[in-house]
Amino acid sequence: MTPISLFGLPEQAPHERVLLATDPATGLKAILAVHSTARGPAFGGCRLWHYESEAAALNDALRLSQGMSLKNALADLPFGGGKAVILKPEGQFDRPALFAAFGRAVQSLNGAYITAEDVGTTTADMRGMQAVTPYVSGIPREGAFGGDPSPKTAWGVFVSIRAGARLVLGRSSLEGVRVALQGLGAVGWHLAEFLHQAGAKLVVADVDTAKVERAVAQFGAVAAHVGEILAADVDVLAPCALGASLNEQTVPAIHAKLIAGAANNQLATPADGDALQRRGICYLPDYLVNAGGIISVAREYRNEGEEQAVMAEVSKIAERVEELLQRVQAADSTPARVADDWARSKLVRPA
Ligand code: NAD
């Protein structure tokens, strides 16, 4: 694992604030990382995960929160970037009590950080926190939009794949385009539905074999081994499981010419983005294509618009993909590096 520098990973700007929150009564151990509030309060989900070490959890919180700054900036949201991770307690635990304690930690930041769902957390967890803090989103509202951001994230990834297929692969539609999907969770499953409806041919893998069997039955997908999905003989690769899937070991074996997926922090290091480019593979940066969920919860938090308006805003991600690819050509650089510079130039308060 990359060694940690508490005041900024080598490739990152320093974080404004990092809170280590504990609550012995509930077993809460959480890290709330506020990377930037330059554009507004730091907004980003909360992950509940079993980490191999506290250092790994801190590393995740620091990287994910920086990613949120870039994601929110590129999506033109009036929010900065933050993220929280809760170290999953061993054995049985009182989930509502744990999230109430986490909600109190969020509240202690007085609005500098706003939370929502991420891997391992649910709309019920978010609803439970409302009793202790208003700085929470991703809660279904009766007769209105809001709640689970995953379908919106999937839609953003889908329109990105569609745009990338046109611009990179020269395909006018997704009919017959072969897509490998790593992870059939909340986002991956919705993405599989959209792709199937558009006529794409799916190759899928998930550690949960029941999900794979369902995808085979429902979408006519081909099942792949989890260890082989990244190297599948396809046109497009959509990583929708966990981070760092694009690394020294996996990049040389990738066949797809386009990569666009929901997982955060797909590149293990910036050098892996360069290696993809050298192999003629176009990697659309994760935080550009997976912004649909944050767009949804941000609108919900601000009580703005309705379902159709959210979907229209998420669909604009495709325009940004197009602009990014134009910028890449002009800069003679990689999409990951150009997107980073583009996003960093927007880390200022919107006019
Ligand atoms: P999820 O937990 O619902 O789904 C993840 C899926 O990946 C699960 O089905 C899991 O079994 C599977 N998986 C885990 N390890 C795997 C492996 N090695 N190979 C194949 N499958 C594996 O999570 P999600 O909400 O669908 O999010 C997926 C990714 O997208 C995460 O990285 C998350 O941070 C990111 N993301 C999610 C959202 C959102 O709206 N949910 C928004 C932005 C980014």
From TrEMBL:
KW Ribosomal protein (keyword) present: no
GO MF annotation: an example: oxidoreductase activity, acting on the CH-NH2 group of donors, NAD or NADP as acceptor
Highest taxon, organism lineage: Bacteria
UniProt KW keywords: NAD, Nucleotide-binding, Oxidoreductase
Please report the stretch or stretches of sequence annotated as the Glutamate/phenylalanine/leucine/valine/L-tryptophan dehydrogenase C-terminal domain: 147-350
Asked whether the keyword Repeat is assigned, the reply is: no
- GO biological-process terms attached to the record: amino acid metabolic process
- Where do the annotations place NAD(+) binding? G183, L184, G185, A186, V187, G188
Catalytic residues in the record: K83 (proton donor/acceptor)
SMART domains in the cross-refs:
ELFV_dehydrog (SM00839)
* Entry similarity comment: Belongs to the Glu/Leu/Phe/Val dehydrogenases family.
What is the name of this protein? Answer: Leucine dehydrogenase
